[in-house]
Amino acid sequence: MSLRFNAINGLSSNSTVKVDGSAKITGIFNSNVFTLQTAREVLSEEAYKSLRSSLKAGHKIDRAVANQIANGIRAWAEAKGVTHFTHWFQPLTGTTAEKHDSFFTLKGDGTPIEQFEGDALVQQEPDASSFPSGGLRATFEARGYTAWDPSSPPFIMEIGQGKTLCIPTIFVSYTGDSLDYKAPLLKALDALNKAAVDVCNYFDKNVTRVTATLGWEQEYFVIDEAMYNARPDLVMTGRTVYGHSSAKNQQLEDHYFGSIPERIYTYMRDFETEAYKLGIPLRTRHNEVAPAQFECAPIFEEVSVAVDHNSLLMDVMDRVARRHNLRVLLHEKPFAGINGSGKHNNWSMATDTGVNLLAPGKTPKTNLMFLTFFVNTIKAVHDYADVLRASIASAPNDHRLGANEAPPAIISVFIGQYLSKVLQDVKERVSDKMDETDESMLKIDIHKSIPELLMDNTDRNRTSPFAFTGNKFEFRAVGSTANCANPMTVLNTIMADTLKQFKKEVDALIEKGEKKEIAIMHVIRQYIVASEKVLFEGDGYSEAWAKEAEKRGLPNVKTTPLALDAMLTDKAKKLFESNHIYSHNELEARHEIELEKYIKKVQIESRIMGELATSHILPTAIRYQNLLINNIRGLKESGIPESGFANQKQILEKISEHINKTADLVEKMIEARKVCNNMDNTRTKAIAYQSQVKDAFFDQIRYHVDKLELLVDDREWYLPKYREMLFLR
Ligand code: ADP
Ligand code: MG
Fold it and tell me: Which residues contact ligand 1 via a Cβ below 6 A?
């Protein structure tokens, strides 16, 4: 029996795994995290204070107490049954990496002991040669090192019976170049902190720290594991490269917010429990638009912690799914013809005085502060739309952006009617010669009760890639598999840069003798005028918007290789260098890595398409073709006239045509790949893979294969069909 029918037969026996969900969330939350509170309990006063102050200041921990801290962490972990530790980091492959070492060691005289020294906590040297470096490290210089980022607490990962202490680290080369997603993110957050504090101090001298906040919404699909295993394309690429749409998919919209199927519900409760222990504050869960699609979202946190938590959760979701004989598909587009998955990044900034800088305030002063940060965000997105677009570019996300169900590749900002009106008023009523009376009028105008109005969910536009949703912006174009660090690095850097510029301009006006508030209003007005073309309130999915955006001169780059060009413009180099995020070298290396990732992904997809066609689809189709031939021959021999088997002949002709076309196109695709593989320049090669392999063949081959799926005897078809993967569980 084929894997497909095994999978279908096995479904009913895959009864739900038992999950003990009786624990109160508050009872297990953070139980596997070395929080400051835990530190207080297990560390000496000296070590605790030192750790706390490093945390507050974002510094490395003091070597002098590192041993004490390490011992405290080991004692805590061992009490929980941990035997190994690892530095946990986020290399540019997009997954997380770990290399486990045991606490166990032998002393000089051979006595076995358990130990975890300060050095092992603070710094490690994993063999880095097989992580992408974009040429930053010559191959003979394989060493990079991981260093603990104390802003992220150590945690215990439970895998089956094994428990591992994970130390969240950054990953850098010996020359100090970043080799991961985390190091540049921390730099960007630092740049934002400095720039935002400076601007906040116009309004409130008490602000000494600004942190960016992130709440991601993770979309995903879940399917039965046996079905998954019967689909080599899912196993190899995370998406189905073939598969005819089922008669029913999402058109009835009966899945969205519907009741969650029990098997999935149990799975959710299980991974949520794991997440709570790891301190991931999951809050919501629901069905998504497509069948078998779901979403979860946490309470927002500081960006660096939120980024870690998302990477960690993707890992946990994957592991826990296997316990339930399920597979979670995090890919942006696992199934053609139905919605793909994104990861909305809700983003804002908060002061250490407790103010959300993107929440409209209640007094004129706080409202002017809100307006300042609000308009600066719009200006940042306007000025660096291309860099922001590049930050979310990936082979899988190309299936979403610009397709009909996800935000377009055009970056625009939605702010809602009310704030559009406010900006319009500022633009029209603030003049260069604004005097004191204008000033008071303006203050009153932007002071109206904005919050209630904005928090209303109805004032939302789901087609915008970057939307204001009452007290935060929501960057919706991020892909579901993405590490949020990359878009967050860019967003916080462009914000820092824009705020720095803003301060310079305001200060210049103040120096000329303008009153502070008036100077601020002037620059705000200037920014509104300069960036209003990025504002768009209409249907972002419409053809009309693409045309309008072109008229406005907004970039609309639909493919990754070209979108990535924005990383290397003079503008981008200056942006990242002047804010100390990336040197030119680092930027070029990253660009190279992203292109290589793109090439490899398309190459793997192309190979699996060829392989499946040749070894799965064509043999099946040819067997059925023979059956028809025999049938027709038999009928003919029995003296039945042609008209008596005209239908069989017609089917035979169709099948033969699709067989021929498939075989022919696969052959040509392989030739095209060979041409690409001989190209030296990575960018040229990536563009060639996109246009000469992917665009030239993927849809065409799929068309013929999907037709064959409809024509060939269902019993003979090996690959689980869409209706089975999406509706059976
Ligand atoms: P949606 O209606 O878009 O599905 P959800 O309520 O599911 O919205 O998700 C909103 C996300 O935004 C949550 O993760 C929430 O914690 C986050 N969020 C709320 N306020 C902020 C903020 N100030 N900064 C960052 N994220 C925030
Ligand atoms: Mg959302």
Answer: 213-215, 217, 284, 297-300, 344, 346-348, 356, 471-472
